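User: Assemble these into one structure.

Assistant: Restating your components, then the assembled model:
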Amino acid sequence: GVTEKRLIAFCGSASKPVLEEAAERFYKETGIRVDLNLGGSGTMLSQMKLARRGDLYIPGSPDYMVKAIRDGIVDRDSAAILAYLIIAIDVQHGNPKHIKTLSDLAKPGMRVAIGNPEAVCVGLYAVEVLERIGLLTKVQKNIVTHAPSCEATAALVAMKKVDAVIGWDVFSKWNPKKIDTILLKSHEIPRIAYIPAAVSTYSQDKKGAQRFIDFLASPAGQKIFAKWGYIATEKEARRFAPKAEIGGEYKLPVNYTLSVQK
Amino acid sequence: MDFGRSHNWKGITSERAFKAATISCLVLLTFFFVGIVLSLVTYTNWETMISTLVSPEIIFAIKLTVITATISAALAILAAIPAAYAISKFNFPGKSVVDTILDLPIVISPIALGAALLVFFNTPLGMIIEVKIARFVFEVPGIILAQFTVITALAIRLLKSTFDGIDPRYEQVSRTLGCSKLKAFMKVTLPLAKDGLIASGILTWARAIGEFGATVTLAGATKMKTETLPVAIYLNLAAADVEKAVAVIFILIALSLVALISLRKISTTRYHL
Amino acid sequence: MDFGRSHNWKGITSERAFKAATISCLVLLTFFFVGIVLSLVTYTNWETMISTLVSPEIIFAIKLTVITATISAALAILAAIPAAYAISKFNFPGKSVVDTILDLPIVISPIALGAALLVFFNTPLGMIIEVKIARFVFEVPGIILAQFTVITALAIRLLKSTFDGIDPRYEQVSRTLGCSKLKAFMKVTLPLAKDGLIASGILTWARAIGEFGATVTLAGATKMKTETLPVAIYLNLAAADVEKAVAVIFILIALSLVALISLRKISTTRYHL
Amino acid sequence: MIEIKNLSVRVGDFSLRDINLTINDREYFVVLGPTGAGKTVLIECLAGLHHFRHGEIWLDDADITAVPPEQRQIGYVPQDYALFPFLNVAENITFGLKARHAPPETINDQVTTLAHLLHISPLLNRNVRTLSGGEKQRVALARALATSPRILLLDEPLSSLDVRTAKYLRLELRRLHEELGVTTVHVTHDLIETEEMADRMAVLNTGHVEQIGTPAEVFFNPRNETVADLVGTPNILTCDQVKPIGHGLVEAVCGGMSIVLPLQDGGIRKIALFPRDIYISTTKPPGPELNRFKGVVTDIQPFSSLMRLKVRVGKNQLLAELPQDIFEEMDIKTDQEVFLILKLRRLRIH
Amino acid sequence: MIEIKNLSVRVGDFSLRDINLTINDREYFVVLGPTGAGKTVLIECLAGLHHFRHGEIWLDDADITAVPPEQRQIGYVPQDYALFPFLNVAENITFGLKARHAPPETINDQVTTLAHLLHISPLLNRNVRTLSGGEKQRVALARALATSPRILLLDEPLSSLDVRTAKYLRLELRRLHEELGVTTVHVTHDLIETEEMADRMAVLNTGHVEQIGTPAEVFFNPRNETVADLVGTPNILTCDQVKPIGHGLVEAVCGGMSIVLPLQDGGIRKIALFPRDIYISTTKPPGPELNRFKGVVTDIQPFSSLMRLKVRVGKNQLLAELPQDIFEEMDIKTDQEVFLILKLRRLRIH
Ligand SMILES: Nc1ncnc2c1ncn2[C@@H]1O[C@H](COP(=O)(O)OP(=O)(O)OP(=O)(O)O)[C@@H](O)[C@H]1O
Ligand SMILES: Nc1ncnc2c1ncn2[C@@H]1O[C@H](COP(=O)(O)OP(=O)(O)OP(=O)(O)O)[C@@H](O)[C@H]1O
Ligand SMILES: [Mg+2]
Ligand SMILES: [Mg+2]
């Protein structure tokens, strides 16, 4: 109807099923319709910047939220954490290459991919993990491509283009028939990522937008995240990596070359 | 030419070889296209296929795609007709500049075009248009505008060559018979151009059906709102749901095939009347 | 026609109005394209522009784009010449099927084509090709293959209409003068088709320059490896770096303009020799 | 009455310069000119299809210079007829009436009348692509006449027809002109057409009107070299003696040449003989001796793509023309003896 | 010697059926047929440009049926000449020699010789687009002759030329044939061309050879109705009496008609008069009385797009033809009196 309230949310496409279910539930409860505009997290931010509109920003990882806050595109105070993401190795279903640890990725002939560390946060996390345990140069020899987004990183394993990617634990939940996740040892994980949400400064209906974030962060919202395999609470996340930082920044090593295996 | 119909064909080997070579090249290319499309079958799952086909999301996407592509192709042809006529028949200062600019939308990737459109609606003019006329950004009209932007240059190129082939004499005669320039154009040039108009229309429409980059940038990718078939493919690929993406690709192909074949049939039948 | 050159032109209003209307339509469309591109200037920052232009990444991307587009356009034209010739001059069973299939790559969005290519290299045949011939997935040859897949159908369409316009009589005469079918094609048909070949080449090349969807899907978006200019635009947008994306768009436009204008110049000069 | 005053017009590199013409009511006016003279441009100016720098066109007492073609009340038959291929014959004829929103009865009447007048009634439902040249010509004429124009403009209406059809259509065009009395401007490059059809004529060359007058005036008294060349620089022979030899033939003796030609009403005083209708041979041609003469070449001059020979026969100096290549092949020198054959039916008698 | 044996070929809806022809060495052989008879198809078969179901073509003692065109040693001049527009005149002529990798000296010699022979030396550097029709014809001929073919195939070589040029080129083609002695197959729809040029001829109609022989045999003894129609169903008049009337003319009296015609060597016994060369008029035509007669229409029959009238003049029944539309316009009935004009130069004498 004409009088119906509508919000536009710019979301990383990885959270598509969760957010769709949540938006549906939210509509039933409040009568506010949330249109989910889906795509790569960075692309979504660009789109908001270019269009100067949108009510909510829900990227797939924290780094773009940092950028969005810095550029004043979202309201810093409205930012909330919706779910946690743990860095892991994702392999093809059944783990045909028998990958157990990060050092397996350095074996000759292994085909590995990571997200583009300059554009995709899962790529940045991957570099950090490798650098931390001193495998960066060795594994780098096996990196055949940089994926342009978080989802593309997962798709590479799903389409059997590579043997393994360093990605999120949740990849195997997105596509359980194609992807298996191998968890890292807790000391190998320097940092826990999360899915944040915030209200856009361009929003015409900040109150409505805030209500959606509140709903997502509420137990009802958390239940939906949990249902789709996400780690919804910090407590649960801590089980995987008790000492890791939550969020925060990591700078690419200066001598890190972006070139990949020829 | 009437080669190869008879059973006791008296062949001339080198000629046969040449014909075979060129046709092989054609068939090879066809197989190449068919092959890469068919290799998608490895990811096909009949259950997914059927469930996808009947899902309200995809039914909505099919409708949205057909409707927007038809509108934008119609608009593009309507805009391209006078523009192509002007570039084909009139001389004016700056014509070669205009001609080169019209190649640009082919060079610039659709995604960049979409970004430019997005920015345009931030300019004062763009804002006035959004407020006074219609909202484009992240709305259905945006899909049409995005498709229109991408396909119009193609339509102009195709129609220009149609108009180039029409003898101005016919228009002149109709003028002496009492038609104004506009009437002459409507009653003589357009009927003469009918064949080319139909062909350009088909190709332009096909291109609009497949448009993705500009659409997704300007109109966004919102389920049940601005999700066309190409956008659905992208979203499913982005969600790493390869089976569903492949299912949508096949739906898009099937839809286009049916439409292309029937458009060709209708237009040839009509033409022979 | 020779309108509007003289200073004391004796005008006929309705005609003038019609001419003005069509040219306005053309100019309006041109302004529309120029306008949306220029609205990007609001996001332009001269410093970013210059630093982008001299960054090794972009210099690499320019080189890669030009080289791959030139190779793939050349390959596409080479493949399209015999294919278009076969479809224009020979009859064979299944011709109309082939004809319709050749419209498909225009309909299917490049991103889906890229996905199909990616899947193809998972099939046994695709794996053999990757091992024995060359690696395409995530490699530079993949860019060329992706561009080739997208532009070949267009090249065939364009060349078909060129060959349609060539009288077979010339070839027949050259046969009687001692040319084999192949030689007749090379020494007679190709020179006759020169004009159309050049025009098709330019459009095909322009389309290859701007190709994004299939390229990024098949060859990936690896900096300094498979990053063409359209991919660079996308990556910068994906990294939320709008200013740099806009700078790359302008670089792409400038590059294409220079190339298009000089190609046109060269080809017309040559033609008049 | 049509008056063209000081008309000048440029198209591309070509220009019509300073045209002044008056065409009277109900006149059949022919403009004669070689290929590229600007005949089509001139007729297009009359039709209002060109815009020009200088000059005016008046129809009776109105300046129609700036009147668009659709308001000029003209009927135009272009060189290639340009029948609308997407319409059938009847629809072609009614096109102009429909464009002017004539009532259906008028349209039907007009089609019936014109189809009858031009003998195309059986063709009315035919696709124009299937018509022969002569039929196309009639349909184009019917289409032009349907709107009852005040002026009929014919651009080389007979040039693409075979000789036989052209001959009949010449007669028919004249008959139609007599019946309908429409002022007609007809352009052509054909001398015989001009002579047979024109009430008055103008000679157009490289964009300029060289002479205006009746065909007899122009053919026998070309005003300058150019016109003379265009109407074929006729050799004018004055006849000393004419005697009938029976069978409808006469023998005319002109300066020592004895020429046999069909008997004409009104007697024979002069004979005009076009250089291109004199065949030259270096060897004695086989066949009958009719109108053949021996002569001596006195002068040879190139003239555009032709060679012009002056040949003395008896007391006459005859000018003959040969294509350059044929001339070279024959290897003719001055003072050489040659044989001349006069083409009988091209003798023009005054 | 060329032998065509039982040749049958289909192109589209059209087929050549069961063609048997023998063309002797050094012969100038003309195939006469109306538009659409299959003349071009036949010549294309000889050139090897068609593949056919049945039949063989032999050249001397070799079966060349399956030999591709480039190995047949033929020179082919197509109907529209098809000069390569991207090459100049000299390059067009040398095209075949270069394709066969002839040594440069041979190429130069050949060009010089041919250019001289065909009088095109001044054209060698010209763009072929700028040539006139006659010049194009010569260049196409030179191109075909450059490779010293054993057979020359000419497809209506003169039909697109103006009357005057065509006349000269007829002579020139015969001369060339005499000089070079190349076996020549020439197809045409023109009766006069056939009569003037052919050593022997064949009549082709709707894909079938109707008659083979010398022109005199075919014209005066058409084997069947069809051939008679094609060669114009001549009215053959037997002359009772022939008397010279001076000035190279004779008067022939045939069945009561007195016809004046040029004197022929060898006397006159029969006159062939083509129906289309008899003009009919319902009113007494103006002009001299030469070869004009009064007659009575005895029969009227439609014949394709023509009307055929039988007219009794004296003791003769003459067949005359009129285009349908002209016939309708004249409104002729049987038993009506009409006037006939015989076209002088089309009288064929035996
Ligand atoms: N639209 C045009 N643009 C440029 N030049 C033109 C145009 N129309 C005609 N001309 C040139 O003007 C000259 C006169 O042309 P026009 O058609 O009037 O000749 P014409 O006397 O009708 O000859 P023809 O007997 O061949 O029809 C020619 O040299 C022609 O090339
Ligand atoms: N390639 C073709 N495909 C279909 N039909 C053809 C083809 N070539 C010729 N024909 C048909 O064959 C018939 C004979 O054609 P052909 O060209 O031999 O006639 P022609 O005797 O040379 O006539 P013209 O005097 O007009 O040149 C025509 O009806 C023509 O339409
Ligand atoms: Mg003209
Ligand atoms: Mg023919």
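The pocket of adenosine-5'-triphosphate (ligand 2) is lined by residues E 11-12, 14, 33, 35-41, 79, 189 (CB under 6 Å).
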